[in-house]
Design brief:
657 residues; mainly alpha; two-stranded antiparallel ribbon
Amino acid sequence: MTLLLVSLLCFAVGATGAVVLAERGRWATYLGAGGVLLGCGCGIVPAISVTLGQPSESLRMAWSVPSGSLYLQLDALSAFFLLPIFLVCGLAALYGTEYLEAFRGRKALAPAWFFLNLLVASMVVVVLARNAVLFLMAWETMALSSFFLVTFEDEKAETRRAGWIYLVASHIGTAFLLALFVLLGQAGGSLDFDHFSAGSRGGLLFILALVGFGTKAGFVPLHVWLPEAHPAAPSHVSAVMSAVMIKTGIYGLVRIVTLLGPPQAWWGWTLCAIGLSSGVIGVLLALAQHDLKRLLAYHSVENIGIIALGLGVGLVGLSAGVPSVAAIGFAGALLHVLNHALFKGLLFLGAGNIAHGAHTREIDHLGGLLRPMPGTGVTFLIGAAAISGLPPLNGFVSEFLIFLAGFHGAVALDNFAGVPLLATIAGLALIGGLAAACFTKAFGIIFLGEPRSPHAASAHEAGLAMLLPGFVLAAGCILIGLLGAVVVRSMVPLISGVTGLSPVSASRELVAAAHSVGLVGYFGAALIALTTLLGWGRSRLLAPRRVRTAVTWDCGYAQPSPRMQYTASSFAQPLTETFGLLLQTHRVLRAPRGLFPQQAEYHTETTDPYQDYIYQPLFGAISRGLAVLRPVQQGKVQIYVLYIAVTLLVLLLWQIA
């Protein structure tokens, strides 16, 4: 625990130093980034140690807040979630040292570093806290610090709108968590987690946790803040929010489930349904997007859905008493937490490189970037393959485990109990196929072909500080893919603690699953070796020859132009039309007229149907209803003081009566 306290101290020093030295040029950046890097370096050591099976560490001391103590604990679950937090946040800080330089002179950079340190520290405390008051304080700090990071470019109207949507969504979720902890504290007589008791209200408490934590995680239909906030934030902040911050919602849900006692079967069914809808709808909306960061934001919804599927399968296994389904399902879900942090952090940082080098995020304005940006292109390709669940990369390993758990359950359970598992298998296959199609579109349109605009034609590669984090994350995607069997076996302490299975039972189930994963890893290693050998042989054969470059076959056109290439919309059109009932895509068509038309236009826009048909009408009605109270807002301090006095008088009379 000492190193974790030192880590928090580093974040505090980095945040304070950035503000104090705000007027000293780059010193604010050095201290702000240095605080994050040093803090993450200190914190990741005990996180790795406890994840691999070392004893838990804790700190408990009295404080002035009633109903509990200042209680921090590092167990296997907390340690596992700290791994991506420390890794991604440290790399994001390094990335930000170069990325934010483009704003120097136009924006004050010290607040950005202050709030980044505060965000990382609050996420660490959220994962370590074992007292409800401490947890909610850190949770609220996390929401507010990320709000200020999202609104970094607050001069833009769309950024301000995204920030407010995020803030409202965060506080709606917090309201449910407040009710959750009050009920748990009432039953247990204390707000410390180890005193919590669900009593007979386990189902109600599960629903409160599902809504409260699901809002942060981005479960459909509570996801609408993600595609607004992620594109608005600076790219390294988007990487932190998508890769690790939304996972605190998953952490909170898993933590509460472990405190509620034996799970009921409908908990697993509910999570499978939420995961299926989040995964399918998230990837379909991603397919229809034109903005790269918005596309990646919807893929966060998709991957949170995959995690929910794994958790649902695990809960179904626990409730039915099938250890293999429980252990492998939870292992797949929790490993996907780590895997998603790696490849989604990589993709968001790659999107930042593209925006930095080509000055646009519009996919249809890009093209041919692999030549001027080879480092970004290669790492983006690795991330795209990993998020699509292709072997031998890390995304395949965790999704394979969820498939494996689903098959085990479908065989072991009777027809009715196996329904959510069969739906999981079918849904995961559909999600994987659509994800592969989406990233084929994204990588092909952005990096291949010819530049579609002057921005793309003049694109340039990012510097080392922006490239190095991508290389590290890409290496992580490859290593977990190749060493999947080792990683799965190392999760025994974590899965034993989460599921309540004995270490022997958890080890038996995970070792059997690791054997299948290992075969894929061996095949992947052989494939990489063969590809490397063939590439080396090709280069040796071509070395003495003259190699020329020419255009591809152009169907007889004498002067092909970039406009003759596929666009992102046309590539995805067969799939978006197939699911048109769900997407509700808006189309604008100005058809060519006459023999020699001068103008024609076809434009598609797919907005979020949940926002269009649920939230905007709902909040519009609330706004109109509250308009009747507008006369109460007089804008005079004396009137507001009178309101307070009258309220206190009414409360006093109520107490006397």
